Amino acid sequence: MANNYESGRLDLPFVGHATFGKRPPCLDWDNIEADIGVLGAPYDFGTQYRAGARFGPRAIREASTLFSFGHAGAYDHEDDAIYLPTSVRIVDLGDADIVHTNTEKSHANIEFGVRKILAAGALPVVLGGDHSINIPCINAFSKEEPIHIVQIDAHLDFVDERHGVRNGHGNPMRRAAEKDYVTGLTQLGIRNVSSTAKEGYEDARKMGSDILSVRQIRKLGVDAVLERIPKAARYYVTIDIDGFDPSIAPGTGTPSHGGFLYYEVLELLQGLSIRGEVVGIDLVEVAPDYDHSGSTSFLAAQILLNFLGFIFHARQSA
């Protein structure tokens, strides 16, 4: 009998359609039958400096094909575990429609897609786009049970309003903290000159934020950081790629040196998947034109697929 590696097509990464992880597309959003729904949000009109994150979802999908080998999931010899076997159903919903220059309609379309994923009982994974796309993602949880937000980022993104702008990529964590169904925020990796003024930090702490820089996290260690996050909560995780150091993630609009390395974030996410229930994810600010090597997109795809593997392994082990 042929083993799993010999059954079906070989389906190499450069063959076929570049859906996320080469998983099936699902363009009928009223009939989502999956454990994970991946939605692109190619919106970058909220940026204050370099644009280009509108091409993030395509680049992440293309990079994710590298990690689509095999028909039996991904075996991790360190954990002696098989992550993302075929029993974990992932579908790619394509992209929310973006209406150029119209933030309200674009954000509404993103929110609509996330609500459809939630209504189907699946885990929404949203590929940005700039960090403002987190605003409609969090809006979509208005009828769900309360959530705690865990943010990986170089910037606090807690600006209330600046020159009338309330829904740009410097505002999402402030908008989230205002929701009565958001119980608090853990903001990790915040460093150096930030997008938020001093009073924004003061407001964030008053509104329930725990803020740690990369250096503080390294001093505390992963286990101590996880202990600061409410246990057995429902977590929404938002990952800005500029939370990583630009030496490994140069393809972003606002690079900030002194960032995380890969395993620092991976271990935090693995611990989080065991500590509570991850109910939503977005990964934002990948701007591939600033990284012709493609390593930023590969990093984004790899961290997402590993994180999803951890989440569903923890669910199945519970």
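The record above closes out task 2.4. Task 2.5 opens with a second protein, given below.
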Amino acid sequence: MATETFGSNRMWGLKELPLPEPVSYFPQTIGWAVAGVVLALLLGWWIWRRWKIWQSNEYRRRGAKLLAEIGASPDKVRELPFILRQSALNAAPRSDVASLRGPEWIDWLNESGGKQLFLKTDAETFDFFTYHQQDQEPIDDAECGRLVAASMIWMRDHHVAV
């Protein structure tokens, strides 16, 4: 019985050639290192900027949450002028917002919201909510729903030039 050997007898005694060194995936030039640092700095700046924008819009999230709690409930809708005023004071300089009353307040809300969200008669409604007792005449549910919906749109869409 013959022993089995691999290959032919012509290949016996040959040595295997050494393999080349593996190719590195790390960039070999300084340009790639500079590009990586620049990209990392840009990414860091972008993350920081998004964080600042998110922080600056915290009053919107808080106001939207309070408006969602109000819903169209006539007993809680009296808080609406206070929520709008608080949000406006966080969005714009105090000197531009604090002195606004009545129709001027409604005009400022419509102008900063970019749409005619509130009617001129809403100034009287907001004054009623603010300055009258809660046990007086109830407000119409449809009117309450319209005011809350308009306030939600304003809270989401308003832009104030500072």
